[in-house]
């Protein structure tokens, strides 16, 4: 016979045959007793009983309290809810839940500030430009071929260039703005200052790009202030010729009165090829129909400088070859530093053979083709010297502004007329001397010529033959800068 246990609890059976749904006699009304927990093994231990003892007692107290309610208030759902009470979450689960909530909140706040820092809340038009972006997240419209062909996607340009001040000071920028602030200068040294200080060191030259002359409205295409910033040379009605050259109508605009007048009142509709200010701001020299003129501001008429310019003889402007391959510009006119002289090219291309250039899409004259002839190219002949063919003869002439005389200075040891390329012309300040760099047609011999306009003499002061040196040649450049003598600085 097995020994009797000292603990009466161990004598109680660990399992029961009663069904959870069977009634139990409680001395009164029947009630349903929940099914006890069935352990995984019949070999229970004292520790297992003790572990569940407190839970069992709590359940019995809850059961007794439940029985005190009227029976008719109980239904099946209440009974099942009482039977299967959910065990509250323990402290470890609550800590994990709180941690997940904290991590989610921190992540949301971080994502919100990242959203603001990347300007995601702004529309695509308001976001700053990202030059490194390869795509956009916006739902923009597709680019259409017609928009491309009509130039709707051409880039906008801003005209900014350096300009000397009225007293020759540097640090000024000339800019073109919108209507009401069309042309103005400002000092870059005060860009970071207060608005009042910047305004003090700025000057409005033209309020509007449109002004009226008599009954005509002039729309400015380009504008060049005079050195003293009191007048502006304005170009309108521009028409392109070659890569760098074109023609237009020119006007003189007064800054003080904000009014304009024709450059040459006697030729209101004359088309000017190039024009430039005198260093003294008192005259403008220009070329029209390949002849040169000068307009003194104290006079209402323009004075003719040359008379024989035409289709094969140019003054003050380059022909196609010099414009494209030598000067890379539309002007062959240079004022002396003191405004006493004007140096300019005389270009004779009468011996140069013509070369036909066909225009299939546009007309060189700008005129409309006749109906039925749209598919035929228009031909324009230009003077173009191929290898071995005669090239244009270019010489340097000078104009004495005070005397109104044109003269040519003979050069000692100069190239022959048919073997000379004049690549650069630079005035030596206000000394009355001009420096000219020339090469032969092969460009392997370079000569530097110094011309004294006052004495009307010229000579070659330097000559280099790179063919003998290393078999090379000279590239066309315009990098010569006059540095005046200064004994205090050792030059």
From TrEMBL:
GO cellular component, one term: plasma membrane
InterPro entries linked: Peptidase_S9B_N, Serine_Prot_S9B/DPPIV
One Pfam family it belongs to: DPPIV_N
SUPFAM superfamilies noted in UniProt: DPP6 N-terminal domain-like
Chain ranges passing through the membrane: 96-116
Biological processes, Gene Ontology terms: proteolysis
Region (Disordered): 1-45
Ranges for domain Dipeptidylpeptidase IV N-terminal: 226-483
Alphabetized GO MF terms: aminopeptidase activity; dipeptidyl-peptidase activity; serine-type peptidase activity
Gene3D superfamilies the record matches: Dipeptidylpeptidase IV, N-terminal domain (2.140.10.30)
Protein origin, superkingdom: Eukaryota
Keyword Transmembrane helix: yes
Keywords, alphabetical: Aminopeptidase, Glycoprotein, Hydrolase, Membrane, Protease, Serine protease, Transmembrane, Transmembrane helix
PANTHER family associated with the record: DIPEPTIDYL PEPTIDASE 10, ISOFORM B, PROTEASE FAMILY S9B,C DIPEPTIDYL-PEPTIDASE IV-RELATED
Protein name: Dipeptidylpeptidase IV N-terminal domain-containing protein
